[in-house]
Design goal:
five-stranded parallel beta sheet, 7 helices, 12% strand
């Protein structure tokens, strides 16, 4: 499964998820359902309660969302970070890479360049460029059913 990483404010996430699915990949992008203002609403609510960010991070809502995302990151075989994205996206990508799993970045023609993107397994100018590479080199990102069909049971 591919964990699709990105911004709640990036309306391209569902389209990109569909492109990956059309290629036969299982994709996790359910986090996007929270909507573009989810983080802002959580922040505003916690401020109304008089909490600081460190205090809010210990709250039930933050723990619930974090565990939801982490559980799916743990289950993923790879991650694709779609730009533009914020700090949490790069934390998620770094966490996946640190676990020895492939992590790719799809650029959005960024104005500001960053050499540390070299940590990623690959950096691509478009989803189409990423798909070409996944087709050629990363058949293991296919669904378990496709792998079992191609290589036999017990994969």
């Amino acid at each position: 499964m591919i964990y699709l990483i990105g911004s709640l404010r990036n309306p391209e996430i569902p389209r990109i998820a569909q492109q990956l699915r059309a290629e036969g990949h299982q994709v996790f992008d359910d986090w996007f359902a929270a909507g573009p203002e989810a983080d802002d609403k959580w922040r505003d609510y916690e401020k109304l309660r008089g909490r600081t960010l460190p205090e809010a991070l210990e709250g039930k809502a933050a723990r619930h969302v974090f565990e939801f995302d982490r559980r799916h990151l743990e289950q993923a075989d790879a991650a694709v970070l779609v730009m533009p994205a914020g700090k949490s996206a790069f934390l998620e990508l770094g966490w996946m890479l640190g676990r020895g799993k492939p992590g790719y970045i799809v650029l959005d023609n960024p104005e500001r360049w960053d050499v540390m993107m070299k940590f990623a397994t690959g950096v691509y100018a478009s989803v189409e460029d990423l798909l070409l590479v996944l087709r050629e080199e990363n058949h293991y990102l296919r669904t378990r059913e496709q792998l079992e069909e191609a290589y036999g049971h017990g994969v």
